[in-house]
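Might you be able to check the backbone structure tokens below? Thank you kindly.
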Amino acid sequence: MCLYNNGLSGSAFSDILGSLSSVQRKELESVVYGGDNEFTAKSYETLEELYLRKRPPYELKELKLVGAQVREPGLMCRLLSGLDTDMRL
């Protein structure tokens, strides 16, 4: 899934992830998100719940946050500390 420069709020990104069917969730391996899109605590919490806590073969294989707007202090630290060591950044 690639969402770049869509003007999405963190809440909208969370809603998009949450609206995927269980089959779509299992098949999603890569998320590229950024540009003028916003990444918030709600975005992180949804990613963590749906993907970052999962184990193979249902985990994300790739997560790229490229230039996303992050305005909440410590959010990227939370994200990095929550990633499994096997996940490539």
Observations:
- The chain is about 40% helix and 15% strand.
- The CA atoms of residues 18 and 49 lie 10 Å apart.
- The chain has one domain: 2-82.
